[in-house]
Amino acid sequence: MNPELIRNWRLELSPARLALMLVGVVAIALLVVADETPHDAADGLHGWFRVLFYLTAGVWGTRRAAAAITEEVAQGTWDAQRMSAMGPWTLTWGKLFGATAQAWVVGLVCLGLSLAGPALFDPSLLSRHEQVHTAAFDLLLVFGGQAVALASALALLALDRARHAQGATLAQTIALAVGANAFTAAIALAERDTPLNWWGLPLSGSQLALLGLALFALSGVLVAWRLMRQELSHFDLPGSLPWGWLGMSGLGMAYAAGLAGGIDDPTFRHSVGLAAAYGVAAAATYVAILFEPKDPLRLKALNLRWREGKRAETLALLPGWAVTLPLAALCAIALALVGEGLAHELGRQMFDDDSLEQVLRALIQMPLLGLLFILRDLLVAHLVFTRWAGRRPRRAPLMTLTVLLIAYLLLPAILLGLGWQAPRPFLVPALDLGWGIAVGAPLLEIALLAILVWRPWRRPPPRKGQA
């Protein structure tokens, strides 16, 4: 049995506390059904207790999942856990299901009452199929949010261990924001009337929504496990590659590409699928660029392990962007090859418009140019982490994001208002100015930034007696 899970259950599942909360839940249920018609009672139980499920298992549960790390750091017991015999998988599941045990018990009671209300008072309100779909939808969404909260807490711990005791609120906020986006996307898919041919499987909108939420929950667990392995410095060869980040990105890319299955034209379908997969890989790369620590000592350790031929330790130290950026590059190259015929077909054969063909070709080739800007932004993030953030690396993601927003949004808008075109290719992709300028500008930036990033590494260590 998982020792971390048992320890958390003993701490969380206090009989007196559980009894008090369950009595409160039953009292709320009695107030909802009092003096109501059967239909109103069923509708009230279903609506109110579904909201209570999200408040307890969702909001409270994400807080507890994040606090599973921050409380250990605040109490000074995290280092002892790191040096224990428990592996990353054991600690991940133990904290994910142990620290949230109390929230899950109360939340499951609320979810049960939400589904039992229509069954007891008005069976016509929800069919059996709708009950199963609602339960699966809510459970997958909340569990995925808790996994994201745990992963966010581990990521913040890697950024700034000394100040991480107060990081539960930030980790919970990240989890709630990601969960809200997943909820919105799943609702939009569930309301789809016609089935979609997802990788050859005819799936309804509700089935696609559940599949997406299942991948969301699985991705959260994989990322949390990967960050836990990194925190425990596990360099075992079978788990050395960042499988968590690779698995999360691969699942997201496959799911997004499959959503293009409703397009009849095969070339158009493949182009849209590759563009969707590229978008997921690029987004995962930017998340890794923003939130992974850019510790020069770790990068030097990675270089040293590589030179020594220690494959397992090299792969374990590999940053997440180094896994997803090649995937984005493959999608961009494939899209440029597949989409060439699409641009010709739509632009010249269907509309007989050469200018439209040029525009479509530029759009299809844009991901290739986007790879250069991803590399540029990676070097910018390294400069921010190593030089500007100082002794508070937790500031680095926000500082990096601010710099990128200024480069991509504020400065181009100012240049547009002033009518200046020359600096634009240094800020955003500008294929309309020609490939030479559009590619040369970011390459020049990459070269200059690489010199700034690499220079501190080339400095010899100070001699004895020198400051």
Helix-and-strand structural type: mainly alpha
Query: Approximately how much helix is present in the residues?
Result: over 70%
Instruction: Name the assembly state.
Output: single chain
The largest sheet is: 2 strands, antiparallel
What letter string, H or E per element, gives the SSE order? HHHHHHHHEEHHHHHHHHH
Parts with pLDDT < 50 across at least 5 consecutive residues: 460-467
Radius of gyration: 26 Å
Between the first and last Cα atoms, what is the distance in angstroms?
Answer: 54 Å
Largest sheet, spatial ordering of strands: 1-2
Number of strand elements:
2
> What fraction of residues sit in β-strands?
under 5%
Shape: globular
**Average pLDDT metric:** 83
Contiguous helical run count: 17
Transmembrane segments: 44-62, 96-116, 136-158, 170-189, 209-228, 240-260, 272-291, 312-339, 359-385, 397-421, 433-454
Keywords: Membrane, Transmembrane, Transmembrane helix
